[in-house]
Specification:
By secondary structure, the protein is an alpha/beta fold. A hairpin with a 2-residue loop joins strand 2 and strand 3 (30-31). The strands form 2 sheets. A 4-stranded parallel β-sheet has the order 4-1-5-6. A two-stranded antiparallel ribbon has the order 2-3. It has one domain (2-162): Response regulator (Rossmann fold). It has 5 helices and 6 strands; from the N terminus they run βαβββαβαβαα. The radius of gyration is 15 Å and the shape is globular. Helix 1 crosses helix 4 (121-143).
Length: 166
């Protein structure tokens, strides 16, 4: 199951979710879930936030290959088919998304932007770690949904219900 996480700049929350799902999505020896991320308007030469990468590394989650990219990449004909698209910031949730081939299920899981927190580097890193933990709690519930009998509408409702958790 391919899941696309969207945020405005694709530098923090969506990157955390992509990496966490790829780390957690291996079930029974096979990759049952595959995470991707993109942004509605990543800045030119945008890179993942270094504190997001550090939070992932501190949690033992691989960061190789993570990059900030436009959501337009996933609307192209040769893009991987998405089963579920989840916005993780309120800005992206309110924007008009591209047409996703295959009409995937959609949901919104709002998280405050850890990039906006001020304080020492350790305080800011702790905020990224707390955001990662919140994302992982919802992902744990998502990956434990029964594999059989989850059609698009049930998946969409389950993913939307998870927005109320955590």
């Amino acid at each position: 199951m391919n899941v696309l996480f969207l945020c405005t700049h694709n530098s923090a929350r969506s990157i955390l979710a992509e990496a966490a799902l790829n780390h957690m999505g291996r079930v029974g020896g096979e990759q049952r879930f595959r995470g991707f991320s993109a942004g509605s308007s990543p800045r030119e030469n945008q890179q993942p936030n270094p504190l997001a990468l550090r939070a992932l590394q501190d949690a033992g989650i691989a960061t190789e290959g993570l990059s900030s990219k436009s959501w337009d990449v996933f609307a192209l004909p040769d893009a991987p088919h998405m089963d579920l698209v989840i916005t993780v910031c309120d800005n992206a949730a309110g924007e008009v998304c591209p047409f996703w081939p295959g009409q995937p299920a959609t949901a919104h899981w709002g998280y405050p932007d850890p990039s906006n927190v001020t304080g020492s580097e350790e305080e800011r890193l702790d905020t990224f770690k707390q955001t990662l933990l919140a994302i992982r709690l919802r992902l744990e519930l998502l990956i434990n949904l029964p594999a059989s009998g989850v059609d698009r509408l049930r998946l969409q409702q389950a993913a939307r219900d998870l927005a109320q958790k955590g």
